[in-house]
Amino acid sequence: MAGSEMSTTCCIVGAGPAGMMLGLLLARAGVDVVVLEKHADFFRDFRGDTIHASTLDLIDQLGLREEFLRIPQNSITTLDVVVGGTRLTPVDFGTLRGPNKRIALMPQWDFLDLLAQEGRTLDNFRLLMETGATGLLHDGAEVTGVQAAGPEGALAIAADLTVAADGRGSTIRGAAGLHPKALGVPIDVLWFRLPTPPSPPPDTLGYLRNGSILITIPRTGYYQMGLLIPKNGFTTIKAGGLDALKAHIRTNTPFLAAAAESLRDWDQIRLLSVQLDRLPDWSVPGLLCIGDAAHAMSPVFGVGVNYAVQDAVAAARLLAPPLLAGLPTANAMRRFQRRREWPVRLMQPLQAQVHKLLAGAGGVDSMPPWQARLATLASKAARPITARLVGRGFRPERLRRKGRKDLRR
User: Fold this and answer.
1) Quick check: 165 pLDDT over 60?
2) Lower CB density within 10 Å: C or N end of the chain?
3) How far apart are CA 28 and CA 407, in angstroms?
4) Tell me, what's the pLDDT at 367?
5) Closest by alpha carbon to 103, among 319, 374, 369, 301?
6) What sequence ranges are listed for the domain FAD-binding (predicted)?
7) 131 C-beta neighbours (distance < 10 Å), count
8) Is 366 within 8 Å of 85 (Cβ atoms)?
């Protein structure tokens, strides 16, 4: 076989939140792990930078709270939306139980660096940067490892188990003959930054008014902006010109009128093609898909990163025993899909319903007083449910279980 060769117990393709968390947890449990990351570092513009209460709980259970808090970050304790000039607070994380009653906002590269630094303290954890998977190794119908390319050329990695954690465009998933079923999404998102004005309003998730829906995620010194547009509508918007886009921003969010002038060319704006899909089968012999490679979540509620991390915890708990014992993992992989599929099946239809509502909600110009009062009362009544739904999701995982050995070091 051309190139270099190595072997491991578990090879994880993709060092995003799912792959890094799974690698760390398996290594802590004593499993030999190799994690592949095709880029030279984590310093990229990710779409998922929200760390919800479910993941903050896991950070605590990992014993990394102090290290996590040293990372510069912002916090959101409520999710406000302004609809036709009326401010609503449908989500208040103060209603959650436990110490974590917020969403942490930090660049995803900082979160991944934290997990990588912790992993590197373990002898059985290897993170190979600038090393991308190019294909799979097989023994008959069974996946037996990964073909990769790194700084020193071709590399064949033999593994008892291969995990595809390389996102919604997973090359490894496709190489294994697994294809997701698209659930249909009527919107895309334009992703860009605007500087924070001198006197900003209270932190607000989004503004719905005058035919526009704008997401405003507060960061240090700037807003991470998201403009919802019709699916495949970016070409039409670009044809209308940058001035028309700025006009959308000014009419929807007047306090950002001056900030909108910082947009000088289309290179500052990225198109995020929103996907919502799910694999019918999350595994084949020798290979398991987790996170977006198994189920792409939409940006609605910002749960994608957190569901990926939950996948990693469940996978580590179920896979570590057979991997350590040198036993087949097929049964553990089936149990993993049964455990994690139903939280996804519950969340994805909710996201799809919100897509439909948002696709038709941008035309709201104002709300009559009676409607504003009714909306305010309804949003207040829903807060305990929405906080749980957004903050922890369906079936949040834990590292520790009463009466059972945990996955901590």
Assistant:
1) yes
2) N
3) 6
4) 60
5) 301
6) 8-323
7) 23
8) yes
Query: Under CATH, what is the fold of the domain 4-71+107-182+275-361?
Result: FAD/NAD(P)-binding domain (3.50.50)
SS3 content of the chain, % helix, strand, coil (to 5): 40, 25, 35
pLDDT at 322 over 80: yes
- What pLDDT digit, counting tens, does each position of 267-294 carry? 999 998 888 899 999 999 999 999 999 9
- Residue whose tokens read 């977006």: 292
Cα 303 from Cα 317, distance rounded (Å): 21
Six-digit token pair at 332? 């553990």
Residue type, 127: L
In terms of Cβ atoms closer than 10 Å to its own Cβ (0-12, 13-18, 19+), residue 151 is exposed
Is residue 7 scored above 90 in pLDDT?
A: yes
Long-range contacts of range 384-388, CB-CB < 8 Å, 24 or more positions apart?
384/95, 386/79, 386/90, 386/91, 387/91, 387/92, 387/93, 387/94, 387/95, 387/96, 388/95, 388/96
Strand order in the sheet with 212-219: 86-92, 78-83, 206-209, 212-219, 222-230, 187-195, 270-272
